[in-house]
Amino acid sequence: MALTLADRAIGAIIGAAAADAATQPMHWIYNPDTLKEVLSDLEPCPEFRPESANPFYRRATGEQTCYGDQAYVLLESLSRCGDVNVEDLTKRIYKFFGPGTVYELPLNDPYREKGGPKAILPIDGPWRNSSLKAFIRNVDAGKEETGCDTDCQMDGVTKLAPVVAMYAGRPEMLEKVEKAVRVTQNDDMCVAVTLAAARFLEHYILNGSDSNALDAVLAQLNDPKRQNPQELDRAVIVHIHQVKDNLAKTSQQLVPAGALHGVLKLKQLDEAVRDTMRCGGCTASRASFIGACFGAQVLQGIPESWRKRTLRYPLLLQLSKKLVQKKLQL
Protein backbone atom coordinates (compact mmCIF):
# COMPACT_ATOMS: atom_id res chain seq x y z
CA MET A 1 0.00 0.00 0.00
CA ALA A 2 1.44 3.35 -1.03
CA LEU A 3 1.82 6.17 1.45
CA THR A 4 -0.56 9.09 1.05
CA LEU A 5 0.61 12.69 1.21
CA ALA A 6 -0.81 12.90 4.74
CA ASP A 7 1.08 9.74 5.76
CA ARG A 8 4.35 11.16 4.44
CA ALA A 9 3.83 14.49 6.18
CA ILE A 10 3.18 12.77 9.51
CA GLY A 11 6.06 10.36 8.88
CA ALA A 12 8.48 13.24 8.44
CA ILE A 13 7.58 14.71 11.83
CA ILE A 14 7.60 11.39 13.69
CA GLY A 15 10.74 10.18 11.93
CA ALA A 16 12.69 13.27 12.96
CA ALA A 17 11.57 13.00 16.59
CA ALA A 18 12.23 9.26 16.87
CA ALA A 19 15.71 9.60 15.38
CA ASP A 20 16.48 12.50 17.72
CA ALA A 21 15.37 10.48 20.77
CA ALA A 22 17.27 7.40 19.57
CA THR A 23 20.56 9.27 19.42
CA GLN A 24 20.12 11.49 22.49
CA PRO A 25 21.96 9.22 24.99
CA MET A 26 25.02 9.29 22.70
CA HIS A 27 24.82 12.91 21.60
CA TRP A 28 28.02 14.99 21.42
CA ILE A 29 30.62 12.25 21.92
CA TYR A 30 33.60 13.78 20.12
CA ASN A 31 36.40 11.62 21.53
CA PRO A 32 36.98 8.69 19.10
CA ASP A 33 38.26 6.36 21.82
CA THR A 34 35.27 7.06 24.07
CA LEU A 35 32.90 6.53 21.15
CA LYS A 36 34.54 3.23 20.26
CA GLU A 37 34.26 2.02 23.84
CA VAL A 38 30.60 3.02 24.15
CA LEU A 39 29.69 1.42 20.82
CA SER A 40 31.43 -1.84 21.73
CA ASP A 41 28.72 -2.57 24.32
CA LEU A 42 25.83 -1.75 22.00
CA GLU A 43 26.49 -2.93 18.48
CA PRO A 44 24.80 -3.60 16.14
CA CYS A 45 21.97 -1.46 17.60
CA PRO A 46 23.39 1.59 19.42
CA GLU A 47 20.09 3.51 19.49
CA PHE A 48 18.21 4.31 22.73
CA ARG A 49 21.16 3.45 25.00
CA PRO A 50 19.59 2.67 28.42
CA GLU A 51 22.05 4.93 30.27
CA SER A 52 23.29 8.21 28.84
CA ALA A 53 26.88 8.35 27.65
CA ASN A 54 26.55 12.02 26.72
CA PRO A 55 29.61 13.86 28.12
CA PHE A 56 27.83 17.23 28.33
CA TYR A 57 24.30 16.61 29.61
CA ARG A 58 22.14 13.72 30.79
CA ARG A 59 18.46 13.13 30.07
CA ALA A 60 16.32 10.04 30.43
CA THR A 61 16.41 7.70 27.44
CA GLY A 62 13.47 8.45 25.17
CA GLU A 63 13.50 12.18 25.83
CA GLN A 64 14.47 14.65 23.13
CA THR A 65 17.56 16.79 22.69
CA CYS A 66 17.15 20.57 22.57
CA TYR A 67 16.69 20.11 18.80
CA GLY A 68 13.78 17.73 19.21
CA ASP A 69 12.27 19.98 21.85
CA GLN A 70 12.42 22.96 19.47
CA ALA A 71 10.70 20.92 16.75
CA TYR A 72 8.00 19.94 19.24
CA VAL A 73 7.32 23.57 20.23
CA LEU A 74 7.08 24.52 16.56
CA LEU A 75 4.70 21.62 15.89
CA GLU A 76 2.55 22.67 18.83
CA SER A 77 2.39 26.28 17.61
CA LEU A 78 1.53 25.26 14.04
CA SER A 79 -1.14 22.79 15.10
CA ARG A 80 -2.79 25.40 17.33
CA CYS A 81 -2.46 28.46 15.07
CA GLY A 82 -2.66 26.84 11.63
CA ASP A 83 0.21 29.03 10.43
CA VAL A 84 3.69 30.24 11.36
CA ASN A 85 2.63 32.80 13.94
CA VAL A 86 5.82 34.53 15.11
CA GLU A 87 4.22 36.05 18.19
CA ASP A 88 2.79 32.72 19.34
CA LEU A 89 5.99 30.82 18.49
CA THR A 90 8.14 33.35 20.35
CA LYS A 91 5.99 33.05 23.47
CA ARG A 92 5.99 29.25 23.34
CA ILE A 93 9.77 28.97 22.88
CA TYR A 94 10.40 31.36 25.76
CA LYS A 95 7.94 29.50 27.99
CA PHE A 96 9.47 26.10 27.13
CA PHE A 97 13.17 27.01 27.33
CA GLY A 98 13.16 30.11 29.53
CA PRO A 99 13.17 30.88 33.26
CA GLY A 100 11.64 28.33 35.60
CA THR A 101 11.93 25.42 33.14
CA VAL A 102 14.05 22.26 33.17
CA TYR A 103 16.46 24.16 30.95
CA GLU A 104 17.10 26.71 33.70
CA LEU A 105 20.38 25.29 35.06
CA PRO A 106 23.46 27.29 36.18
CA LEU A 107 25.55 26.33 33.15
CA ASN A 108 22.61 27.16 30.85
CA ASP A 109 22.21 30.69 32.26
CA PRO A 110 21.97 33.10 29.27
CA TYR A 111 23.74 35.73 31.39
CA ARG A 112 26.52 33.49 32.72
CA GLU A 113 29.80 35.35 32.52
CA LYS A 114 32.75 33.75 30.80
CA GLY A 115 35.74 32.96 32.94
CA GLY A 116 33.68 31.87 35.95
CA PRO A 117 34.06 28.61 37.87
CA LYS A 118 34.66 25.65 35.59
CA ALA A 119 31.52 23.67 34.91
CA ILE A 120 31.22 20.10 36.14
CA LEU A 121 30.08 17.95 33.23
CA PRO A 122 27.80 16.28 32.41
CA ILE A 123 24.98 18.38 33.84
CA ASP A 124 21.88 16.63 35.12
CA GLY A 125 19.29 17.94 32.67
CA PRO A 126 18.95 19.27 29.11
CA TRP A 127 21.38 21.59 27.34
CA ARG A 128 20.31 25.10 26.33
CA ASN A 129 22.55 25.92 23.36
CA SER A 130 23.89 29.28 22.16
CA SER A 131 21.02 30.29 19.87
CA LEU A 132 18.46 29.63 22.60
CA LYS A 133 20.49 31.66 25.11
CA ALA A 134 20.71 34.55 22.65
CA PHE A 135 16.98 34.26 21.93
CA ILE A 136 16.18 34.59 25.64
CA ARG A 137 18.45 37.63 26.00
CA ASN A 138 16.86 39.25 22.96
CA VAL A 139 13.33 38.65 24.22
CA ASP A 140 14.29 39.99 27.65
CA ALA A 141 15.71 43.11 25.98
CA GLY A 142 12.47 43.67 24.06
CA LYS A 143 14.11 43.32 20.65
CA GLU A 144 11.85 42.94 17.64
CA GLU A 145 14.26 40.50 15.99
CA THR A 146 14.72 37.75 18.56
CA GLY A 147 16.97 35.42 16.56
CA CYS A 148 20.70 35.04 17.19
CA ASP A 149 22.60 36.67 14.33
CA THR A 150 25.89 34.82 14.95
CA ASP A 151 24.72 31.20 15.18
CA CYS A 152 24.61 28.98 12.10
CA GLN A 153 24.39 25.58 13.74
CA MET A 154 21.96 22.85 12.69
CA ASP A 155 18.94 23.90 14.79
CA GLY A 156 17.06 25.21 11.75
CA VAL A 157 17.45 21.94 9.86
CA THR A 158 16.52 19.82 12.87
CA LYS A 159 13.18 21.51 13.49
CA LEU A 160 11.93 22.14 9.93
CA ALA A 161 9.83 18.97 9.57
CA PRO A 162 6.55 20.39 10.97
CA VAL A 163 6.66 23.47 8.72
CA VAL A 164 7.55 21.52 5.58
CA ALA A 165 4.93 18.90 6.42
CA MET A 166 2.28 21.62 6.62
CA TYR A 167 3.25 23.59 3.52
CA ALA A 168 4.78 21.01 1.17
CA GLY A 169 3.63 21.70 -2.37
CA ARG A 170 2.62 25.30 -1.68
CA PRO A 171 4.60 28.27 -3.04
CA GLU A 172 4.94 29.87 0.40
CA MET A 173 6.64 26.82 1.98
CA LEU A 174 10.17 28.25 1.97
CA GLU A 175 8.98 31.63 3.17
CA LYS A 176 7.27 29.93 6.14
CA VAL A 177 10.41 27.92 6.96
CA GLU A 178 12.56 31.05 6.92
CA LYS A 179 10.07 32.90 9.10
CA ALA A 180 10.14 30.13 11.71
CA VAL A 181 13.93 29.75 11.68
CA ARG A 182 14.68 33.46 12.13
CA VAL A 183 12.78 33.50 15.44
CA THR A 184 15.83 31.87 17.06
CA GLN A 185 18.54 31.99 14.35
CA ASN A 186 18.77 35.20 12.36
CA ASP A 187 21.87 34.08 10.45
CA ASP A 188 21.82 34.09 6.64
CA MET A 189 23.93 30.96 6.18
CA CYS A 190 21.78 29.05 8.65
CA VAL A 191 18.68 30.11 6.70
CA ALA A 192 20.17 29.21 3.30
CA VAL A 193 21.20 25.72 4.45
CA THR A 194 17.87 25.14 6.18
CA LEU A 195 15.95 26.12 3.03
CA ALA A 196 18.01 23.67 0.97
CA ALA A 197 17.21 20.95 3.51
CA ALA A 198 13.53 21.97 3.33
CA ARG A 199 13.59 21.47 -0.45
CA PHE A 200 14.86 17.91 0.01
CA LEU A 201 12.25 17.08 2.64
CA GLU A 202 9.46 18.64 0.58
CA HIS A 203 10.50 16.53 -2.40
CA TYR A 204 10.20 13.33 -0.36
CA ILE A 205 6.88 14.36 1.19
CA LEU A 206 5.43 15.06 -2.28
CA ASN A 207 7.02 12.17 -4.16
CA GLY A 208 8.10 9.50 -1.70
CA SER A 209 11.34 7.66 -2.39
CA ASP A 210 13.12 9.09 -5.44
CA SER A 211 16.71 8.52 -6.56
CA ASN A 212 16.57 11.81 -8.50
CA ALA A 213 15.90 13.96 -5.41
CA LEU A 214 19.38 15.50 -5.37
CA ASP A 215 19.23 16.57 -9.01
CA ALA A 216 15.70 17.92 -8.51
CA VAL A 217 16.84 20.10 -5.60
CA LEU A 218 19.89 21.32 -7.50
CA ALA A 219 17.63 22.26 -10.41
CA GLN A 220 15.48 24.31 -8.03
CA LEU A 221 18.47 26.08 -6.54
CA ASN A 222 19.87 26.88 -9.99
CA ASP A 223 16.54 28.25 -11.25
CA PRO A 224 16.78 32.06 -11.47
CA LYS A 225 13.01 32.20 -10.82
CA ARG A 226 13.18 29.93 -7.73
CA GLN A 227 11.05 30.60 -4.68
CA ASN A 228 12.59 32.59 -1.83
CA PRO A 229 16.11 33.04 -3.29
CA GLN A 230 19.02 33.63 -0.90
CA GLU A 231 22.33 35.35 -1.54
CA LEU A 232 24.14 32.28 -0.22
CA ASP A 233 22.35 29.75 -2.45
CA ARG A 234 25.44 29.46 -4.66
CA ALA A 235 27.56 28.37 -1.68
CA VAL A 236 24.91 25.79 -0.76
CA ILE A 237 24.93 24.45 -4.33
CA VAL A 238 28.70 23.97 -4.15
CA HIS A 239 28.30 22.06 -0.90
CA ILE A 240 25.59 19.78 -2.32
CA HIS A 241 27.81 19.03 -5.33
CA GLN A 242 30.59 18.02 -2.91
CA VAL A 243 28.23 15.52 -1.31
CA LYS A 244 27.16 14.25 -4.74
CA ASP A 245 30.77 13.81 -5.85
CA ASN A 246 31.67 11.90 -2.70
CA LEU A 247 28.76 9.49 -2.32
CA ALA A 248 31.16 6.58 -2.75
CA LYS A 249 32.90 7.55 0.48
CA THR A 250 31.79 6.42 3.92
CA SER A 251 29.84 8.65 6.27
CA GLN A 252 32.86 8.73 8.59
CA GLN A 253 34.79 10.49 5.83
CA LEU A 254 32.03 13.08 5.37
CA VAL A 255 30.82 13.87 8.88
CA PRO A 256 30.07 17.57 8.20
CA ALA A 257 27.84 16.49 5.31
CA GLY A 258 26.72 13.30 7.00
CA ALA A 259 23.01 14.08 7.19
CA LEU A 260 22.51 14.48 3.45
CA HIS A 261 25.00 11.70 2.70
CA GLY A 262 23.01 9.30 4.88
CA VAL A 263 19.73 10.19 3.18
CA LEU A 264 21.13 9.75 -0.32
CA LYS A 265 23.28 6.66 0.18
CA LEU A 266 21.48 4.41 2.65
CA LYS A 267 18.11 2.71 2.26
CA GLN A 268 16.22 2.86 5.55
CA LEU A 269 15.82 5.01 8.64
CA ASP A 270 17.33 2.76 11.32
CA GLU A 271 20.29 1.83 9.14
CA ALA A 272 21.08 5.46 8.33
CA VAL A 273 20.68 6.68 11.92
CA ARG A 274 22.93 3.93 13.26
CA ASP A 275 25.50 4.78 10.61
CA THR A 276 25.58 8.45 11.60
CA MET A 277 25.75 7.50 15.30
CA ARG A 278 28.99 5.68 14.57
CA CYS A 279 30.47 8.98 13.38
CA GLY A 280 30.11 10.60 16.80
CA GLY A 281 29.83 14.33 17.36
CA CYS A 282 26.46 16.01 16.83
CA THR A 283 24.64 12.80 15.99
CA ALA A 284 21.20 14.08 16.96
CA SER A 285 21.18 17.01 14.53
CA ARG A 286 22.18 14.79 11.62
CA ALA A 287 19.82 12.02 12.69
CA SER A 288 16.78 14.28 12.90
CA PHE A 289 17.10 15.30 9.24
CA ILE A 290 17.77 11.69 8.23
CA GLY A 291 14.72 10.58 10.22
CA ALA A 292 12.50 13.22 8.64
CA CYS A 293 13.51 12.30 5.09
CA PHE A 294 13.15 8.54 5.59
CA GLY A 295 9.95 8.95 7.58
CA ALA A 296 8.49 10.70 4.53
CA GLN A 297 9.62 7.99 2.10
CA VAL A 298 9.27 4.47 3.37
CA LEU A 299 6.06 2.65 4.33
CA GLN A 300 6.39 1.62 7.99
CA GLY A 301 9.94 2.95 7.79
CA ILE A 302 9.99 4.10 11.40
CA PRO A 303 10.50 1.00 13.56
CA GLU A 304 7.62 0.39 15.95
CA SER A 305 10.08 -0.17 18.79
CA TRP A 306 11.55 3.30 18.12
CA ARG A 307 8.11 4.89 18.31
CA LYS A 308 7.36 3.16 21.61
CA ARG A 309 10.67 4.26 23.11
CA THR A 310 10.18 7.90 22.05
CA LEU A 311 8.43 9.19 25.17
CA ARG A 312 6.58 12.00 23.44
CA TYR A 313 5.35 9.83 20.54
CA PRO A 314 1.61 9.71 21.45
CA LEU A 315 1.46 13.50 21.72
CA LEU A 316 3.55 13.98 18.57
CA LEU A 317 1.20 11.73 16.63
CA GLN A 318 -1.86 13.58 17.93
CA LEU A 319 -0.44 17.00 17.03
CA SER A 320 0.85 15.77 13.65
CA LYS A 321 -2.60 14.53 12.68
CA LYS A 322 -4.09 17.85 13.74
CA LEU A 323 -1.49 19.71 11.68
CA VAL A 324 -2.20 17.59 8.60
CA GLN A 325 -5.92 18.31 8.95
CA LYS A 326 -5.11 22.01 8.89
CA LYS A 327 -2.83 21.42 5.89
CA LEU A 328 -5.70 19.89 3.95
CA GLN A 329 -7.78 23.00 4.70
CA LEU A 330 -5.18 25.40 3.28
TrEMBL record:
Cofactor(s) essential for the protein: Mg(2+)
Binding residues for Mg(2+): S285
Glycoprotein recorded as keyword: no
Keyword Manganese: no
GO molecular function terms attached to this record: metal ion binding
Keywords of the record: Magnesium, Metal-binding
Cofactor note: Binds 2 magnesium ions per subunit.
Family per similarity comment: Belongs to the ADP-ribosylglycohydrolase family.
Name recorded for this polypeptide: Selenoprotein J
Natural source organism: Gasterosteus aculeatus aculeatus
